Amino acid sequence: MSNKAIYPGTFDPITFGHLDIITRASGIFDLIIIAIAANPAKQPLFNIEERIKLAYQVTAELPNVKVIGFNGLITNFAKTQSTNILIHGLRTTSDFEYELRLVQINHHLMPTIENVFLMSTEKFSFISSSIVKELAHYSNDVQAFLPDVVHQLLIKKML
Questions:
Q1: Of the listed ranges 5-14, 46-55, 87-96, the one predicted with least confidence
Q2: pTM summary value
Q3: 101-132 per-residue burial string, b: 16 or more CB within 10 A, e: under 16
Q4: What is the tens place of the pLDDT at every residue in 110-142?
Q5: Domain residues for 37?
Q6: Catalytic residue ranges
Q7: How many domains in the chain?
């Protein structure tokens, strides 16, 4: 296996918190694959094509970052990408508990899977896509939490 890792998620929308994890992980691994889950069960605000495009736009200055959309289990996706390393961003202990359950089931499905946990930087530890969408829904300014291109599209979606 090469020194590449997958950072999976819905990224609906991608926030400065996500970018913090991606940027830091890009300094650790040769290649970071942002794996954007289609995940229609979550009823995302942005469709998969929009989320992929936004992720490409906001990571354009990171040459070792690749963005790929996927549908299905992350373990199957990891096998198609010939890697066994998953990155998990953590903000709080409740994130850890949630991610730990995923780690355990993924390990059951793919015993060779390895997991790297990166703690959010303090200034991003309260940001989540869900909170950003809820605040925007009630006409609050969320510009401080999102890259400009993401913020502009979110505003258009909320109109």
A1: 87-96
A2: 0.93
A3: eebeebeeebeebebeebbbeeebeebbbeeb
A4: 999 999 999 988 888 888 999 999 999 999 999
A5: 4-158
A6: 18, 42, 91, 129
A7: 1
